[in-house]
# Entry
Amino acid sequence: MEPSAHTAAFSDVWRIPEGEIHQYRLPLPDVSGSGKFIVCGDMAIADGNVAAGPSEYSWQHYNENAFVELNFVMSGQLYQTHEGLLRRQLMEQGYSNMLFSPGSWEKNELSGNKGFHNLGVHIRPEKMMALLSSYAPELESLAAKIDKGEPFVIHSPAAYFSPQLQHVLGQLWTMPVPPGLRRLHIETQVLQLFCLQCAALMAADHVVPPETLRSADRERLHHARTYLLEHLLCPPTLSELAGICGLNEFKLKKGFRLLFGQSVFGFVSNERLHTARQQILQGDHNISEIAYGLGYTHPQHFHRAFKKKFGMTPGALLK
# Structure
């Protein structure tokens, strides 16, 4: 990791009494950040919010404790790097993943000056292995990797939170006062998040044994995905993208579908529609402006694609 990045130590938060909500401020200079943390048995929730900070500000910490993470980006955006696993992965509102990266350095870089809010669920390896084996045998290959201590990351195929997921995330901190019921509430909500995340991954046929792709190729494919997200309005051609990420077109097309469960073209189309959905809800532009701004040659084409994707017309989204 670059020596200019600020180093933070977060290991002490795991020593707080079980079932108690621990409020904390991020131990970082030049930024305003806070969060809350609660541990319940083999599971914990870390809700961190960087309210403001210099653009491109970065910090790093060492993942000493081995936990499987379910990350949900509530707002803002940043780039995250895990040694040997992720290289400047863009994490923005609506993004989520399942990540296991024990004994590694993690670096975070703010993108812009709007801050960043992430809710992370941390599950001990033994608990996650038992959950996967008992309830999600389709993902049992991940349990084998956890058992061997092999890192992995799986990105959710959706770039926004479903209504069910939004509901669970919104209820996490609305908990009973008695400690016993509080622990039950947290355990129940964490299991619901686990269920919804696994269902999304399996529904998209997204589960791929990581050993089918070389580590270097996976990194290049993640770089291609990040580049596409950053250039949705004017995406590169397939040959241009292949040159950018350092793969030939055949490896790019095959590897992208294998790792992310969809073609490069399908990914761009889906992400444009998710972006359009967010812009419609924000209400800053009318639907025709949004359609043209995202590269659609005619609003009717956008309407058809939107309805096929979300089951409703763009106008119905505002009703």
